[in-house]
Design brief:
This protein has about 210 residues and is of the alpha+beta class. The chain contains nine helices and four strands. Strands 1-2-4-3 form a four-stranded antiparallel β-sheet. Helix 2 packs across helix 7 (about 130-150). The radius of gyration is 19 Å and the shape is globular. The two termini are about 35 Å apart. GO terms for molecular function: oxidoreductase activity.
Length: about 210
């Protein structure tokens, strides 16, 4: 695992999107669970954690998913595909979230009640589009964290936004409160990734 700033830098620099996977390599479910558990330490708006995951590692199911994902090869050859969903009704978890913090001793009871009240006063009244934007942003944070953790553990990933989200929701019985955001293929690379470049820093950053 990542233990120093130098090793973190190496993980970031070495992570590339991989589309060719060893179809015979299988990552144990327990190891996938451990990576997800660590990824979920990512921050989120009001700590409401509006992410849900569907891990697809069954071979026949991956073949079905491949068709939904416009026949992208990595869906079938990777060890697993992790579908990241965003919860547009994330506020319904508010009592569970803040009571957990209270029971852990991180906040007092008065703060807990105030946070719950403030969340219930604001989030349910926000437009669905605004809540969807929050969910999309937060799932982006947890997705990037997951990909770095995977790389630190010796695995490769690629994100896929190109899939039929309606068909995905129908096939995997996704309730309406959850929106499919991205698919992440996870496995062992069978070929080197195509490296990419980045635009110059001076074109991207402005100090004031």
């Amino acid at each position: 695992m990542i233990t120093t700033m130098q090793s973190l830098s190496e993980v970031i620099r070495n992570r590339h999107s991989v589309r060719k996977y060893d179809p015979h390599y299988k990552i144990p479910r327990q190891e996938i669970e451990e990576m997800l558990q660590e990824a979920m330490l990512a921050p989120s708006s009001s700590n409401l954690q509006p992410w849900r995951f569907i891990v697809i590692d069954d071979e026949e199911t991956k073949k079905e998913l491949k068709a939904i994902a416009y026949n992208q090869e990595q869906v079938e050859t990777s060890s697993a595909v992790i579908a990241v969903l965003g919860d547009i009704e994330m506020y319904k978890n508010v009592e569970k979230v803040y009571r957990s913090s209270y029971e852990a001793g991180f906040i007092d009871e008065e703060s807990m009640n105030k946070l719950i009240q403030n969340t219930n006063n604001s989030y349910p009244n926000a437009p669905v589009e605004a809540r969807a934007n929050i969910a999309s942003f937060d799932t982006g944070l947890v997705s990037m964290q997951l990909m770095l953790i995977a790389k630190a553990n010796g695995y490769d990933t690629v994100t896929m936004g190109g899939f039929d989200k309606q068909k995905f929701a129908e096939r995997f019985d996704v309730p309406e409160r959850y929106i499919p955001i991205v698919l992440i293929a996870l496995g062992k690379a069978a070929a080197p990734a195509h490296k990419t470049t980045r635009l110059p820093l001076e074109e991207m950053v402005r100090f004031i």
